[in-house]
Structure formats: C-alpha cells, structure tokens
Write a structure and sequence with these properties.
heterodimer; A: 115 residues; mainly beta; 55% strand; B: 113 residues; five-stranded antiparallel sheet; globular
Chain lengths: 115, 113
C-alpha cells in the first residue's frame, strides 16, 4: 500500500533509446514532482505539476518531457537517452495546505543506467 | 551555486550519544526548512521541519535548531540509535516558490553500538 510508487525500480538501456518512468500517488495530493539525484548525490528538482498544470520547469534538456494525465499520476518520458542521464530519479508529491508549507513525500526512486 | 550546504559528508556516533548534523544556507529569503532521512534503495522520508518564525522545533528524539542570523540549522538526535544510521538531507524553500525545495548534498550518519 505504497503512498508514492514509481515503476520501474531499475532501468538499464542503450544510448539513443526512449524510455518512460511512471509515478502514482494515493495520498490525495495535488502537486507532484520529479527529482534527479546524480552521481554526487545531489538531489535536484526537475519538474513540478499542480492539478495537472506545469508549475516548475528547471533547466532540463527538452529530451525530458513530463506528462500528468491526472492529479495522481506524473510520468517522465526521456528521448534519445545519453550517458549523462544515468542517475536515480525520484518522484514526490505534496499538498498545498493553507500555510503553503511544503512537505514532500518521495517514492523509492528509479535507477536509470544508460550504456 | 549551491544554496544549501552540508559540509560534513559523514558522521559516526556511538549509540546513546547525541548526533548533531549541520546545514548552512546562503539565501536569506528561505523561510521554511526540512530534514529528510534516506535509507539505501529508498526515497527520502520526511523527518522534521521548522519555520523561520521559530528557532527550535522538537519531535521526540529529534530537535531542529535554526539560527537565522548565521543562516545555519542543525538537527540533534538524542539518544542516537543504530536504526538512525542513514543519509540525512536538509532542504529549504522560499515564500515566493514554496513548491521548490533546495536540498543539501546529505550527511551519512553511522550509529555504532
């Protein structure tokens, strides 16, 4: 009964391929995020959606395209994968409360290895 | 341009003693701070937070202290337990963009018997 679940947990693929990572949350939250944790363990936000609307779009190559079919899902599609895309990708969700203080809840991560 | 810094990559503490994890930030606009704990092969788990209107927040064995003038916060764990062994991340957000958490690079805490 995982709150924020990502699939797959591991993804090994060749350079140039296109791949997708799926994320679902059952917390009833209205905001979802994608983070990238690189080899230096630096956790950095990539995108955020609130009620299916893109609200954060950091400096990310346009090969990365998030898609939010509904509030409970935020998928990440990556085109033309490159070696530098190898990282752990985390999905997170939160609820924008009255105090607008943001506690984000994370999935277990997807370890992407590009060969 | 790393706005949140955890300068100690690792910390080793004996069980029962106090663990003190430190975090510094550079953006004076940050007004909300969080600590997350992360075990291997799992996602970060929220631990405790503090708003800039406070200088201390306590939750059981965990206490976070905020020193706004020094742009410094710390997490105290008392007493430390072996199950506390994990990587701890501090994070911060600003009122003009509450959805964007800026994370530090983490401190690996090891609690030994």
């Amino acid at each position: 009964d995982t709150a924020v679940s990502q699939t797959p947990k591991y993804l090994v693929t060749q350079m140039g391929n296109d791949k997708s990572i799926k994320c679902e949350q059952n917390l009833g939250h209205d905001t979802m995020y994608w983070y990238k944790q690189d080899s230096k363990k630096f956790l950095k936000i990539m995108f955020s959606y609130n009620n299916k609307e893109l609200i954060i779009n950091e400096t990310v190559p346009n090969r990365f395209s998030p898609k939010s079919p509904d509030k409970a899902h935020l998928n990440l599609h990556i085109n033309s994968l490159e070696l530098g895309d190898s990282a752990v990708y985390f999905c997170a969700s939160s609820h924008r409360g009255q105090e607008a203080k943001n506690i984000q809840y994370f999935g277990a991560g997807t370890r992407l290895s590009v060969l | 341009d790393q706005q949140v810094k955890q300068n100690s990559p690792s910390l080793s503490v004996q069980e029962g003693r106090i663990s003190i994890l430190n975090c510094d930030y550079t953006n004076s606009m940050f007004d909300y701070f969080l600590w997350y704990k992360k075990y291997p092969a799992e996602g970060p788990t929220f631990l405790i937070s503090i708003s800039s209107i406070k200088d201390k927040n306590e939750d059981g064995r965990f206490t976070v202290f905020l020193n706004k003038s020094a742009k410094h916060l710390s997490l105290h764990i008392v007493p430390s337990q072996p199950g506390d062994s994990a990587v701890y991340f501090c994070a911060a957000s600003a009122p003009y963009n509450t959805d964007k958490l800026i994370f530090g690079t983490g401190t690996r805490l090891q609690v030994f018997p």
